[in-house]
Amino acid sequence: MWTSFETLITGLLGERTLGELGFWERVLYILGKYSPSFLEGAGSTLIVALIGTVAGCLIGFVVGILQTIPVSKRDNLPIRGLVGALKAVLRGYVELFRGTPMMLQAMVFFYGAPQVLGIQLGVWETALWVVSINTGAYMAETVRGGILSIDPGQTEGAKAIGMNHVQTMVHVILPQTLRNILPQIGNNLIINVKDTCVLSVIGFTELFFRYRSVAGSLYVYFEAAVIVLVMYLIMTVVLSRLLRLFERKMEGNDNYDLATTDTLAHTTGLYSYPGKGSNFDERHKEGGDGSE
Fold first, then answer.
1. Which of 132, 139, 109 is nearest to 52 (CA)?
2. In this model, does residue 285 exceed pLDDT 80?
3. Which of 58, 124, 171, 189 could covalently link to 53 via disulfide, CB atoms 3.0 to 4.6 Å apart?
4. What is the pLDDT of residues 100-159, one digit of tens each?
5. For 29, how many CA atoms within 13 A lie in the half-sphere containing its CB?
6. H-only helix segments in 170-260
7. For the segment 153-201, what is each residue's pLDDT rounded down to a tens digit?
8. How far is the C-alpha of 53 from the C-alpha of 135, rounded, in Å?
9. Is the pLDDT at 266 greater than 70, yes or no?
10. Is 28 exposed, middle or buried (0-12, 13-18, 19+ CB in 10 A)?
11. Quick one: residue 266, left, alpha or beta (phi over 0 = left, psi -120 to 50 = alpha)?
């Protein structure tokens, strides 16, 4: 398929050299010759971004939930100390990976793990690991804020009907939190699609790595950059639209029918006062019509 496409492009451009072609002709030439390479790089970008975002969301939910464990003075001292130490460790994780560039994190894990830990991580393993834990650090704060944004009265109501903390989180708090932070999850996915370009420093062959290879071999940096820019834009726009559709599905139906069959609820126009002078007339009978 691609051979036929390249042959077609070559036939359109003729026997001219690359230097003799115009700007858009050079773009067309690059597409005809390197489209499979660009598409392979885009596929690697999407795989790492999707897996890293999903894994990062799971990490973020766990860390965010643990950071909101309630502790009171009535709890035992060892429990308070354990929870406090756990929160301090998790806070350190969030600050470390949220406060340092992903590029340096990738280099530390790829080049430092064999020296410090004696573990040799492959390029794919390093890319997935770095994107996941980096996303998890950001999502942890998002989840923590989402949990704290839920009305405390809902937690009190859940406990009033006998739910423990775990049941309250699973059945009451987390479903609402997920709906509230869904746009931020989408933002993290879009950011990961773009930020995977920094993984080229460890030799990960994503879309930006392919751009550097093509641009360096032909010295057509601007033309190749335009192609890659459009490809990134297509990926992010498509993912944004899909996430928007998913958000609308989460919103549910906005149309509700007014219940008027409840005899205890008097709707407008349904309630009539008792007749004047009847046994149910609350007006003062001595006053006749109620006047003094």
1. 132
2. no
3. 189
4. 999 999 999 999 888 887 888 889 999 999 999 999 999 999 998 888 888 888 888 888
5. 19
6. 174-195, 207-218, 221-251
7. 888 888 888 888 788 888 888 888 888 888 888 899 999 999 999 998 9
8. 6
9. no
10. middle
11. beta
Give the number of C-alpha atoms closer than 13 A to the C-alpha of residue 246, restricted to the C-beta side: 14
In eight-state DSSP terms, residue 120 is -
Q: What does the mean pLDDT of the chain come to?
A: 82
b/e per residue 64-74 (b: at least 16 CB within 10 A): bbebbeeeeee
Single-letter residue type at 270: L
Interior angle at CA 56, CA 137 and CA 201, nearest 5: 80
Residue tagged 């858009």 (tokens): 24
Single out the residue of 73, 64, 137 nearest to residue 105, CA to CA: 137
Using 50, 70 and 90 to split pLDDT, how confident is the model at 277? low
The one-character DSSP state at 264 is: T
Q: Tokens for 46?
A: 């999407």
Task: Report whether pLDDT(260) > 80.
Answer: no
Strand, helix or coil at 162?
Answer: coil
Residue 41 · residue 53 · CB < 8 Å: no
